[in-house]
Design brief:
Length: 209
């Protein structure tokens, strides 16, 4: 599992927002900074706090990118991205340095987004179907050149790269589970077998002593 129950700050009344499909950024801009949500096509979608292995893989991916990042970009962990009226929250992103002072950042300033798959039904935010369907479509429409999906829920941790084509759609690569050496957005190495072994280690129940 990669998600825990939803956290709603004490005293936060979401009644005026939930169940609507006409919300705008102005309706949600004053929500607490530590409250995890997305604004999707006028709907407020609440996000659970990720489990440790989800956060660890997101961290490792961001760190691998940051190691060789050029000076004109910032590599960020989870951050809000404004996508044509919606506010999405990927697990990581590469952003032009001139755009990092805004929250949410504009999609036009984003070079790469990263999503780590979470458990849940096919309709759940962060699920495999959601990341490779809805979010892939929205990120492509926004013109974000690269999109990475990392899936820790199968037998092995897998990595899939989506590359924006000239027609504005993503070209989806294969799901890889071995050592991945990439040359875009710059040289990056992701050691998926190590991540799989670590996931299995921390996911195995242990008897208390």
């Amino acid at each position: 599992m990669t998600a825990v129950p939803l956290y709603v700050p004490d005293g936060l009344d979401l009644t005026p927002l939930l169940g609507r499909d006409d919300l705008t950024f102005d309706d949600v801009k004053n929500l607490p900074e530590d409250f995890r949500y997305e604004l999707r096509d006028g709907r407020l979608v609440l996000l659970p706090t990720p489990f440790y292995i989800h956060q660890r893989i997101a961290y490792e991916t961001v760190a691998a990118l940051d190691a060789n990042a050029p000076d004109d970009v910032a590599v960020s962990p989870e951050i809000s991205v404004f996508v044509d009226g919606s506010e999405l929250r990927p697990d990581g992103a590469v952003i032009d340095i001139g755009g990092v002072a805004r929250i949410p950042v504009f999609a036009a300033d984003v070079r790469l987004v990263i999503e780590v798959v979470s458990t849940g039904s096919s309709e759940s935010a962060g699920s495999r179907e959601d990341n490779c369907g809805y979010k892939a479509g929205r990120y492509a429409e926004a013109g974000i050149p690269l999109y990475w999906v990392i899936d820790p829920l199968g037998e092995r941790v897998t990595f899939t790269e989506f590359v924006l084509s000239a027609d504005g759609s993503y070209r989806r690569g294969p799901a890889l589970s071995e050592l991945v050496e990439l040359d875009r957005p710059w040289p990056v190495t992701l050691d998926l077998p190590v991540w799989t072994a670590y996931r299995d280690k921390v996911s195995t129940p242990r008897r208390r002593r």
